[in-house]
Write a structure and sequence with these properties.
By secondary structure, the chain is of the alpha+beta class. The protein has 11 helices and 20 strands.
Length: 446
């Protein structure tokens, strides 16, 4: 049983990496914004006073376990899922609110029941593990119902951090895609959720869409025996979150428009369409919950044309936490994106290394996804071209993990030129792993 002490509240910092110089007539400004929170204790090993047990504990977690009929094939899958959930329960910090949900074509409260959450201590952890032993497989899959029940339970706790962990092994066959999307829309911004697919019979785009909409992580656990270790890591990370609902606030001056805002590390995540207005010429982009960690964002803005020698503030980036009354708490960190017009061709044509790196990483993710879609559609030439470009980008950027995954799907003739041949036979687990992890990026060497 893990009894985590409460980390101290993290401090945020913002660093901006860009080439601010534009040629005459130039209008597009690109910047990589690195957001870092330190002092939360999840990575730094900081020690602090224990978090008190009870209703002011600050976090609530819902564990959603697939109990559909396919979880019995092979029977070890259900057993491993029970063991993994038990390991996650053991990792709960004293005082954290929690519940376990069994998911089929309906959502069932496994523990504690009665439409409520338990508060973690030695006794409730043991009771939850006893309840898990009674879980059996049978029925269909309707993930939207699991998420809606998790939302109802999590919202009953007066806490800052609300988090879900979802495990599935199959396709969402017992509700329409529209029903799942409606559930995700209803839950977005209310809790974060990590999603895992076990085995290879689940739909990658379903699992990744859940994690994307709910600002969590997605991954494959191809071998069910690896579930316990993965669940423990996920819960440890969740227990380290200290600040919820952090938004990247981007302010731009008159005449400037935002072309896009996306997270580019540790994964590529498009945020542009999630903007909420935050006063004159400012918008908030959600980033979810934070512990002790660092993430990178690519901000691209279009500024009005200006003459040589002129300069302007193209954007101001800060961090805020929206408050119930509609106001926002500023976390005290900001970065400035600048534009300077020059006739120095060397200065204005130089691409910032961070911008170049992450532009390539975003293209890499897209090339993999498009290449695998073309492969499934039987377009061999198209798939070969896209996956070859992915191999080239992975090699050039030093993304060794992605390069290894690609090498299980294609035979690499020449990585530098992106010359590849599609493998005649590809293990389903290898293709699914590549698709699931296609958006994972490698940090630029600053």
């Amino acid at each position: 049983m893990a009894n985590f002490s409460k980390p101290s509240v993290p401090r945020f910092s913002v660093d901006v990496y860009q080439n601010e110089y534009l040629p005459e007539g130039g209008r597009e400004v690109n910047a990589i914004v690195t957001v870092t929170s330190t002092g939360g204790g999840t990575l730094a090993g900081a020690t602090a006073a224990p978090r008190p047990a009870g209703p002011d504990a600050g976090a609530a977690v819902a564990l959603m376990v697939d109990c559909s009929g396919s979880m019995d094939y092979p029977p070890t899958k259900m057993r491993n899922a029970r063991d993994a959930t038990a390991a996650a329960v053991d990792t709960l910090r004293d005082g954290v609110h929690f519940a376990v949900i069994g998911g089929t074509h309906v959502a069932k409260e496994v523990y504690p029941g009665g439409g409520r959450l338990a508060v973690a201590d030695a006794g409730t952890r043991e009771q939850a593990k006893q309840a898990l032993r009674r879980l059996s497989a049978g029925g269909g899959t309707a993930i939207g119902t699991w998420l809606r029940l998790a939302d109802r339970l999590l919202s009953s706790a007066d806490v800052a951090i609300r988090h879900g962990i979802l495990l599935t092994d199959g396709r969402n066959e017992h509700e329409s895609p529209e029903d799942l999307k409606a559930a995700l829309d209803a839950c977005a911004g209310r809790f974060t959720c990590d999603a895992r697919g076990v085995g290879t019979d689940w739909e990658v785009k379903e699992v990744t869409s859940i994690a994307s909409a709910l600002l969590g992580t997605a991954d494959i656990v191809a071998d069910p025996a690896g579930l316990a270790a993965d669940f423990t890591r996920m819960m440890e990370t969740a227990m380290g979150k200290e600040v919820a609902d952090v938004a990247l606030r981007v302010w731009t001056p008159v005449g400037t428009t935002i072309k896009f805002v996306k997270q580019v590390a540790p994964t590529v995540e498009e945020l542009t369409g999630r903007r909420t207005e935050a006063g004159p010429r400012a918008g908030d982009y959600p980033t979810g919950s934070w512990g002790d960690e660092s993430r990178d964002y690519h901000v691209c803005v279009e500024v009005p044309a200006a003459g040589l020698g002129q300069e302007m503030l193209a954007a101001r980036v800060s961090l805020v936490v929206p408050q119930p009354d509609g106001s926002a708490q500023n976390l005290g960190a900001q970065g400035l994106v600048r534009a300077v017009w020059t006739d120095d061709m060397t200065a204005s044509t130089s691409i910032n290394p961070q911008v170049a790196h992450y532009t390539g990483q975003a293209e890499l993710a897209q090339a993999i996804q498009e290449g695998l879609d073309l492969r499934k559609a039987g377009d061999i030439d198209g798939a070969t071209a896209k996956l070859g470009r992915a191999v080239q980008l992975a090699g050039a950027s030093g993304n060794a993990d992605t390069a290894k995954l690609l090498a299980k799907v294609v035979d690499v003739v020449d990585a530098a030129t992106g010359t590849v041949r599609l493998k005649a036979k590809v293990a389903e687990a290898d293709e699914t792993t590549l698709e699931t992890r296609s958006t994972k990026t490698v940090r630029v060497k600053k």
